[in-house]
Structure formats: C-alpha cells, structure tokens
Description:
single chain
Amino acid sequence: xxxxxxxxxxxxxxxxxxxxxxxxxxxxxxxxxxxxxxxxxxxxxxxxxxxxxxxxxxxxxxxxxxxxxxxxxxxxxxxxxxxxxxxxxxxxxxxxxxxxxxxxxxxxxxxxxxxxxxxxxxxxxxxxxxxxxxxxxxxxxxxxxxxxxxxxxxxxxxxxxxxxxxxxxxxxxxxxxxxxxxxxxxxxxxxxxxxxxxxxxxxxxxxxxxxxxxxxxxxxxxxxxxxxxxxxxxxxxxxxxxxxxxxxxxxxxxxx
Length: 256
C-alpha cells in the first residue's frame, strides 16, 4: 500500500545487502518504489534496478552538486533513456547552496536545461532544493515548470514556499526529518498541504527517520514517515498510506 517516491537503492551503502533491503521494504508494505539516478555513475545502476524489479521505477537526471560535470551529450543521453517504459520522471534536479561543489550559475543553467527537456518530453520533475528556496522558485516560474509539475523532494521550506510550489503544480514530499521531535516547521507545513498534494519518501540511505536516526536509512522505513503524517493530519495509517499512494500514482501516471 505504501508508495516510496524517492530512494537511492543503487547507492554503495547497499552493495552488501541490496536485495535484502528491497525484500524488507516489501515486508513493510511498500508496493512501489521510485529510485533516482542523478549523474553518470548512478543513472546506469538506477536503470538496472528498475529493469530487475517490476515494482521499482526510475527517475533520471542531474544533481546540482554534479552540475559542473554535465555535458550536452549527457542531456541527450537522459532524453534517450527517458523513452524507457520504466522511466517515470526527470531529476533530481535543482539547486544546492549548502555543498560548494558546483558554481551557482552552472547549477542554474543545468537546472534550466533539464526543465526544458521535461517540458519537451511532458514528464514530471523531482526538485532538489537546499538553502536555495527563492532561486529555485524563480527558475521554476521562469521556465514554466508548472506545465509538467513534479515533486518538491524532502521538503524543508516554509509554508509560504510550499504555497508557491503548490501554485506551480507541485506535490510536497516529506521524508525522515518529519519524524524528528524538533521538526517544528516541517510538521506545520505538513498539516497545511492539501491532502491531494502530499507524498512520502525516505531518500535512503540518507535522512533516516526516528527511531533509527543516525543509522542507514532504507525504503521500508517510509512507514514511519506515513505514521507521523497520519498523526499530524488526524487520519489512520491506512488512510494516509492510501492517499499518498494514490497521489504518487497520479503524478507518475501509473495505473496499478
């Protein structure tokens, strides 16, 4: 019943027990996983995972931290791979002003190019935004990203930022930090987002939810995000699982 909208199961942290982690996700009620490939190294392994498991889908794109390495040939490669039936979106793309690994102007140009490609292909986009709220929103608006919409992944912004994203046809996704006791702002935003625009994720192996904080995250832990979201909204776990699953299926155009 659970739809995990953002995982990195092809990360090296899972090299020793990847299939066991995937099996545990199924045991924890995860019916569908969207896995992310975000650079030259991770896109091929992301595609391999999607082809190996019928319930795992791929999103491919270029992470802002790696923006300086992206070429026009990479963009053409992403466009070609996007025709694969298991590819359901482009990303994760956006801006990251926390890690100083690619110049801001290069990040912005790579971000714009990917939005334009998504509009050409009519595919939703997954947004990575770290310490760059205003610039992300400006680029989304200028590049008419509302035409395709997508996900504000692992949302950490204010309600004002969320409202602007919602107005541009974006869903708001929450991960492990929602479960932290000191996560006042995420809980406040999660309480206000329309139910039809809520999503859940893990971003595993990162951002592990309570009570496993500090350990490696995995897709099965999305249940703890769902539980917290249900508590915040005054709904049952089953109701929240159904709502977020239906939302994800609608966004990614998956019927099953």
